[in-house]
Amino acid sequence: MFSRRLLPVVTSVAKSSIPEFKNPFVNNTFTLMTYNMLSPYYMWPQVYTYVPDKYKDWRYRHKLLEKEILTVYKADIMCLQELTTKDYNSFWEPQLKSQINYGSKFIAKTPPKYWSRPLNEMDGVGIFYNLDKFDYISSSSIYLNDLLGIFSINELKYLKSTKITLTNGMGEPVGEDSLLNVLHGRNQVCLFVSLLHRDTKTMIVVVNTHLYWKYDEVKLSQCLTIMRKLNRIIKQLLMGREGATYSKIKILFTGDLNSTPDSLVVKFLKGDVVSHGGLNLVNPLRPYLNHFIYQDTSSADFEHTCYSGKLKGIFDYVWYHDTDFKLKSILSGKEVSAELRHLNQFGLPNENHPSDHIPVLTEFEILK
């Protein structure tokens, strides 16, 4: 196994105009990880033909996940995707609480039409947080197919009139439907957890999601839904909170966005005006989110964060504002690519890696 390295990051945010905490008794750094765990029920035989059966086995993969999450990385904030309800309730929630004093929240997706397994085997997203560093404030969650109150009448008309060419798993056209119907038919979710960083008294809203894996228009619409809900959460946090101002809330948006750095989703999140058919969309959260971690790293540090057969790319993100946080270090991913080439393997999981995604581990400094 090629050992991954924690790389120090020199960012453009280190400016004299942004004062940093000087109190030696105040710890203004924390670690954050986003990780798609690969649900055991998505180990499709037609996709993972290159993985030996013993490395597909959930018990084998779970032991590796336990080692990574509880021992090797143990980030102060952990945002997990493809975490099943059963696994959250029976293992991760109680184990992280008892072993390392972490609180957590979770939301499961609604089962799709083809789902025939028990409901508790459906996956969702979870956020775990170190109670020695953070106090829990509140949480909220949304289903990304619930568009009521999110889009205006004119926007809904546009979604209804816009047609999407449907494709199968091989990318072959199989029909057509409206963007509105496609959005209603998807079951993705998003979780929001508001925390107070104890040492700096900073309010941080941590957001974790897993966007649909295809159709740029769908992913962009889902992302807009999240941003509009997040805008409301910020307003709710400020209501009735003495001394609270917009400048005292910071955002960390994480997850598997199934979107490459040159995608519409990434352009939208950066604050670019994105043309969505007849609409020009601008991220309402531009004052809180303008930066993602790969802008502060060399292109040589990551080839991919997902190694799922033919579906490879940088899909896993942490977003923030570069006047709120400074990225101090990041766990490099290039060693995984080198390992696969050395072993002449097609993708993940394998003997050393329990998921088809690699964990993206970061260290941040809170800027004042």
From TrEMBL:
<dbReference type="GO" id="GO:0000175">
    <property type="term" value="F:3'-5'-RNA exonuclease activity"/>
</dbReference>
<dbReference type="InterPro" id="IPR036691">
    <property type="entry name" value="Endo/exonu/phosph_ase_sf"/>
</dbReference>
<dbReference type="InterPro" id="IPR005135">
    <property type="entry name" value="Endo/exonuclease/phosphatase"/>
</dbReference>
<feature type="domain" description="Endonuclease/exonuclease/phosphatase">
    <location>
        <begin position="33"/>
        <end position="357"/>
    </location>
</feature>
<dbReference type="InterPro" id="IPR050410">
    <property type="entry name" value="CCR4/nocturin_mRNA_transcr"/>
</dbReference>
<protein>
    <submittedName>
        <fullName>LAFE_0D10770g1_1</fullName>
    </submittedName>
</protein>
<dbReference type="Pfam" id="PF03372">
    <property type="entry name" value="Exo_endo_phos"/>
</dbReference>
